[in-house]
Write a structure and sequence with these properties.
The chain is of the alpha/beta class. It contains 19 helices and 18 strands. The chain has three domains: 2-38 and 469-552; 62-250, inorganic pyrophosphatase (n-terminal core), CATH 3.90.1640.30; 359-451, Diaminopimelate Epimerase, Chain A, domain 1.
């Protein structure tokens, strides 16, 4: 059913009572928590227990990953033959942490490893021929990608011609045609047997390293050059990095991602990695418990796309260093780079607003497509802010070595990747997620792209779903125990927000009675004398129960 609130539309379909009862018994949960889980698509008591568990040993078997056998076979051959392996990453927090995890796992197995993260200011998205030429000249015969390249057909074909095999590990949307890689590990592949589809790139990399150690750890390694966190503590260190990358990439905080984030954030304060120790110092988080909000506001943000402009990546170098003094210097460089980034982003936002005002084609269009001289490193920020402000599918183009590079962001209910699939012949390369994607193209294709994108959005306008109510709970059922139990759903994030509850036929007397029982209402919205349905959220800080009324259903 649809509930029309004064602020939003809400969808609420009471869950199957038999399922709720099964979840309640299996998870030892209240009716309210069981109802919330059932309303969020948990379809069995077993899945409910799995959702609530945060033991990393409970993660699904890594052998279920797509092409698991091919990955093991090719890496085994590379290790046995002493081949040089390159780990190709991506220049955001997800990609950098995934690069470190994959590279260090291969190092522990005794491999010769180099890392490469393209500078998007000069190289754009994904793998490129110049990079492959350099890797080939350096003797690389195997590239393992992380957080990238599931759409890079041309580059991988070019690498094959140079004698370079590629193992793709990625989490982005699957293109209509896959590259000719030795193996493609992406849980979103249609034939994937892996039970969870929504890991970040770093989550996929973590599970691939679990696979490699399970299959090859007894044959190869340990590395001649060992680091303090290699061996038994390595997976704890890897989980901490995986938590940072997952939170920063805004993946759904459900099932495997939730496990990685809960387990990983608990391990970050215990790190032995100099780079992470220095980053905690720089963020003033040393010696403190770390939660998802700390990662969002400090640790994840610190890994933003800051490079040295000379082919190096500050964040990657920071995490790989084994010297604490060196790490502290690099952490300061990263912080200074972030300050410069913020200044650049502020100027770019003003310049883009001016470009929009000067471009008559943006007026009244169903999508916002803008050409601007925005520096590449802040394009994602500016595009996201434009999309948030306008609610429109938004594409921002800038020059890249004579071609056009674009960042795209979209509202809920619109799939950018499907839009790009429909015109894939226009791009040199593209990929991403339904609401965040990017591409490069020849500049002469821009006019056709604009026309076809406008046409596509006109025919497929965004269709956002209503917000969801999770369960019914009258005000007289609110207790500290219920509020604390709903806190078990933390950490909150994508597809796992705080529970939205509805209280039916609430009167001012009910509201006042709840206040008298000790519930503190933090919203200025409150029911009147006439009965209304109130949508609210609960929180308990250990001593006090807070209820925030977020909407009132319109009686009309």
């Amino acid at each position: 059913m649809i509930l029309k609130g004064l602020k939003h539309e809400w969808s609420y379909d009471p869950p199957d009572p038999d399922l709720v009862e099964g979840i309640r018994k299996a998870a030892d949960a209240s009716d309210v928590l069981a109802s919330v889980l059932a309303s969020r698509g948990i379809s069995s008591p077993t899945d409910a227990v799995r959702f609530l568990r945060t033991d990393p040993d409970s993660l699904p078997d890594s052998h279920l990953l797509p092409d698991a056998d091919r990955v093991v076979e090719r890496v085994r051959a590379a290790l046995a033959g002493g081949e040089k392996i390159a780990v190709h990453g991506h220049d955001d927090a997800d990609g950098v942490t995934a690069t470190v995890i994959m590279a260090e796992a291969l190092l522990q197995l005794g491999a010769s490893v180099v890392c490469y993260i393209p500078d998007r200011r000069s190289e754009g998205h994904g793998m490129n021929r110049a990079e492959l030429d350099r890797l080939s000249a350096a003797g690389v015969t195997l590239v393992v990608t992380v957080d990238s390249c599931v759409s890079d057909r041309d580059a991988i074909r070019y690498g094959n011609g140079l004698g370079i095999d590629t193992i793709v590990t990625d989490h982005h949307e699957i293109p209509p045609e896959l590259p000719q890689a030795v193996a493609i590990v992406n849980p979103k592949l249609p034939n994937s047997r892996f039970p969870y589809r929504y890991m970040a790139g770093v989550g996929v990399a973590l599970r691939v390293t679990d696979l490699l150690f399970a299959e090859l750890g007894g044959e190869f390694g340990p590395a001649a050059e060992s680091r303090p966190w290699y061996g038994p503590t390595w997976r704890d260190e890897a989980l901490g990095l995986a938590a940072i990358g997952s939170i920063a990439d805004k993946v759904p905080l459900t099932f495997d991602n939730r496990t990685i984030v809960v387990a990983g954030t608990s391990r970050i304060p215990l790190t032995e990695r100099p780079g992470l120790l220095a980053l905690l110092e720089e963020s003033r988080l040393s010696g403190q418990a770390i939660d998802a909000d700390d990662v969002r506001s400090s640790l994840g943000a610190a890994f933003g796309r800051v490079s040295d402009g000379k082919g190096g990546n500050y964040a990657l170098d920071l995490l790989l260093t084994t010297d604490l003094d060196d790490a502290r210097e690099r952490a300061q460089q990263l912080a200074q780079g972030r300050t410069r980034w913020r200044d650049t982003a502020s100027r770019a936002w003003k310049d883009t607003q001016a470009a929009i005002k000067a471009d008559p084609t943006t007026k009244g269009a169903p999508a916002l497509i803008v050409e601007s001289t925005v520096p590449v490193e802040v394009m994602g920020y500016v595009t996201s802010r434009l999309a948030d402000d306008t609610g429109l599918p938004t594409v921002l183009l800038s020059d890249l070595n004579g071609n056009a590079m674009a960042e795209a962001r979209g509202p809920t209910g619109f799939n950018l990747v499907e839009a790009f699939h429909s015109m894939s012949e226009l791009f040199l390369g593209y990929g991403g997620h339904p609401r965040a994607a990017g591409f490069t193209m020849k500049r002469e294709n821009f006019a056709e792209f604009r026309d076809r994108m406008i046409e596509y959005v006109s025919a497929n306008p965004p269709a956002p779903d209503p917000r969801s109510v999770d369960a019914e709970l009258p005000f007289d059922g609110v207790t500290p125990e219920i509020a604390r139990e709903l806190g078990m759903l933390e950490p909150f994030g994508q597809r796992n927000p705080p529970a939205a509850l509805v209280a039916r036929s609430v009167t001012l007397d009910d509201y006042e009675a709840a206040r008298a029982s000790g519930v503190i209402f933090t919203s200025t919205v409150r029911p009147g004398r006439e009965p209304v349905d109130a949508v609210y959220r609960l929180r308990n800080d250990g001593e006090t129960t807070f209820a925030n009324i977020i909407d009132v259903i319109d009686a009309e």
